[in-house]
C-alpha cells in the first residue's frame, strides 16, 4: 500500500513538471516573448509615425483600420514599405517582421489574428 501511494505521489509530482516542457508550453512562452519584442520594435520603429497608441500621426491610424484585415498586406507593408513608409526587411528578421505584423493586427482595438509564414508568402 505504501509503495502504491509513493508511486501515485511521484506520478502526480512528475506530470506538472513534464507539462511545462511540452511544445505547447514552449510555444506559449515564445509567443509571449515574440509579442514583447514586437512591442519594443513597434515603439522603436513605428510609434513615431503611427503613435504609441496606434492612433496615427504622420502615418495612418492603425486603430480599426480595415486594411489590417489582409495579413499579406500588413506583412508586405512592414517588410517592403509604402509610399511614405520605409521597409524594414533589412532591419528586422523574418520572425520579427511576422511578430510585428501580428502585434499590429492584434492591438489598438484590432482582433484580426496572427500573421503566418503562409500569409506572408514565405511558406515552402
From TrEMBL:
Coiled coil: none annotated. One of its GO terms (molecular function) is iron ion binding. Residues 33-108 form the Cytochrome c domain. It holds the Pfam family Cytochrome_CBB3. PROSITE patterns: CYTC. Residues 1-19 form the signal peptide. It comes from the Bacteria. Its cofactor is heme c. This is Cytochrome c. It comes from Pelagibacterium lacus.
